[in-house]
Amino acid sequence: MTQQVPLQKALISWFRANQRDLPWRHSYAPYEVWISEIMLQQTQMDRVVLYFKRWMDIFPDIQSLVSTHEDQVLKCWEGLGYYSRARNILKSARVLLEQYGAEIPSSRKELLQLPGIGPYTAGAIASIGYNRDVAVVDANVVRIFARIFNIDLIPDSPEAKALNWETAKKLLPEGQAREFNQGLMELGALICRPRNPHCSSCPLAPYCLALKYDLITERPVPKKSSKIIPIEMATGVLINNGKLFIQQRLPDDVWGSLWEFPGGRIEMGEDPEEAVLREFFEETEFRVDVASKITTTTHHYTRYKVTLHCFLVTLAQKNPDPVLHAARNFHWIPFSALDNFAFPAGHRKLINHMQNSGFVLEQPSGKPD
């Protein structure tokens, strides 16, 4: 690490010449930096830009965010996944209004007290939003350090984490945290990529030990790949008198507070149709009949591959009022109102299929043709 000063200069010079034109970089408003950083967790940049612009149109500041209902926040977040991020934004906004007069603190210590803000996000807000001398370490930084300094440690190990944070703090140039920290992350996104890095275009190539020793493909030290766990689920779209039944998940559940069609895992020995009948009764006490198969969707969630078998169902009883056991609210809504509610990814794929095929619109009475 004897080349720290020229390394810093090379990185900042490269960032100034090559940084992407991202909307939160126009003013570096701390609120915009905060929202962008939360959105960028587990989400690709091109999608974040679209969601960020829409978010700012609807919630341009903390006041507008606090004055809205959680359902509106979740709807605006729909498609980004990991919905606890959106709920934590709303919780933090309320704290910021009550304790800071709707201002975002610049202190890393204070930022860490807010819901959903960890060491990286606190450092990003402080350094990028306020240019405070606070280090950041994310996946891009871990990868760059592993290559530059030839770190022969598994990235998630306590030793590697401590070393990466210590290195980030030592390298941070005084008064230039905004450009330096963004430069590291931008370099990781554009040049020092996980696969096929552009070493010939890298401004830090002269300082890279992994490149010198031909170890680029071995740094960071590869982690054991996680096994993908398949899950088979079934759900039913219940139509009665031309309206659809939807229910809102419990707040502390997976995909908490999102809306859904009733359903769940297919148990051993069941076929999908049997699972729909059982799940409907267990969740709502509705007795239903399966009218037809609508589609099958597949989506991935962390280490899970979820296959969702989707059916059209009709009531086999006269009483249209459910007894909820797995939800906190319900609605009977027209098909055209589905876009007003936030659904998990698998159910949104089902809705998109129905919208594109005109399946439900062809059955306004709620009974199969």
How would you describe this protein?
Helix 2 (30-40) packs across helix 3 (45-58), helix 2 runs antiparallel to helix 8 (119-130) and helix 9 packs across helix 11 (177-190). The chain is of the alpha+beta class and 369 residues long. Strands 1, 2, 3, 4, 5, 6 and 7 form a seven-stranded mixed sheet that branches. It has two domains: 4-218, Orthogonal Bundle (Endonuclease III, domain 1); 230-357, Alpha-Beta Complex (Nucleoside Triphosphate Pyrophosphohydrolase). The chain is elongated and about 75 Å long. It has helices at 4-18, 30-40, 45-58, 62-66, 70-77, 84-100, 108-111, 119-130, 139-148, 158-171, 177-190, 209-212, 272-284, 345-357; strands at 229-240, 243-249, 259-260, 263-265, 288-301, 304-315, 327-333. Residues 362-369 have low confidence and may be disordered. The termini are far apart.
